[in-house]
Amino acid sequence: MIFDLSHFLMLALGAAGGFALYFFTARRGGSDAPAATEPAALLAVQSMVQTALQDHMMRVSELEKTRAVEQQEFRTLIDVLRQETGQLGRALRAPQPRGAWGEVVLERVLELSGLIKNQHYATQVALGAAQDHLRPDVVVYLPGKLSVVIDAKVPLSAFLEAQDDARAEADRIVAIGRHAQQLKTHITDLGSKNYWDRIRDLSPEFVVLFVPDEGMLSTALRADPTLFEYAARSRVVLASPMNLIGLLRTVAFGWRQEDVSENARQIAELGKKLYEAVQKFGEHYDTIGKRLAQTMDAYNKSVGSLETTFLPTARKLKDMQVVDAITKPIAEIVPIDATIRAPSKPELLIRTGSND
């Protein structure tokens, strides 16, 4: 692009010089001015054109140098990316790194869906007898003591071969077919484990096969459209990151509703206990009132007995000068004339049986 622009500038400047030369030649033919001044004007125009051309050529040269440096840096970056991509592809061809990558993507999807580890789901849970060695990647707990098993599978080797542009188109088509067959093998293997029979909680009779890349799943389904139907018959649900997030967010919403219901249940239970405590407190309060009334009645009766029996005899003893005159007189004891206020609210009368 820069090379074409420089040539265009050179042509434009050449055309401008030719136009100037033509203009002054025409003036020479139709003007009465001295002919000696025309070569000087032409030289001045030529000098201006040369200066402008040199300036543009210098700029073009600088841009070319910059472009060459940037192009070299870009090629170096492409080589580094090609090497790293090749290393990653070779690493992911091994089963263990491939499985670890699938588990990492699956756990990230679980986190994005709003589920909490060890509360809403657990990883690497041992199912069945010890000799079975069944450890699905994730067991998701559903409200109502239900559980669903999710296992990540990464059919990658044939898929990478199908993405290699250096291969012939026929070889790539064959690789895509093998990729679909690899996914079908995973479906068969996962469906045969019957996780729903081995899990302690109730579980729907299906297992989720998680493919951590949208392209892997869509490529296999395009190559073999019957995979979905085959998976359904095997009680396996195929899931990519996008549709698994939708499924798990529905589970997270169910847990939020379950938490709201549990909080409402606890509030109702606390309200019931509080109401019963108020009733019990009313019983105690009523008992205290009755005891106070009985105490007041006994007190008033004792005052009456004191005034009618003991005090007259004691005063006669003083009149008979049995006691000293300086002895303080017996204090007058006044009966209590008060009424105990009984509870009047219905809540406090339910258990007391009082209607006052």
Topology:
Blueprint: H1 2-30, H2 37-93, H3 95-112, E1 121-123, E2 138-142, E3 146-152, H4 157-162, H5 169-191, H6 195-198, E4 207-210, H7 214-223, H8 227-233, E5 236-239, H9 241-319, H10 346-349
Parallel strand pairs: 3-4, 4-5
Antiparallel strand pairs: 1-2, 2-3
Helix pairs in contact: 1-2, 3-9, 5-7
Task: Please sum up the structure shown.
This protein is α/β, with parallel strands linked by helices and 356 residues long.
Describe this structure in words.
This protein is an alpha/beta fold. Among the domains are: about 90-240, Trna Endonuclease, Chain: A, domain 1, CATH 3.40.1350; about 275-350. The chain is about 65% helix and about 5% strand. The chain has 10 helices and 5 strands. It has helices at about 1-30, 35-95, 95-110, 155-160, 170-190, 195-200, 215-225, 225-235, 240-320, 345-350, and strands spanning about 120-125, 140, 145-150, 205-210, 235-240. It has a 5-stranded mixed beta sheet, sandwiched between helices. Helix 1 (about 1-30) packs antiparallel against helix 2, helix 3 (about 95-110) packs across helix 9 (about 240-320) and helix 5 (about 170-190) packs across helix 7 (about 215-225). The radius of gyration is 51 Å and the shape is elongated. Mean pLDDT is about 75; it is low at about 350-355.
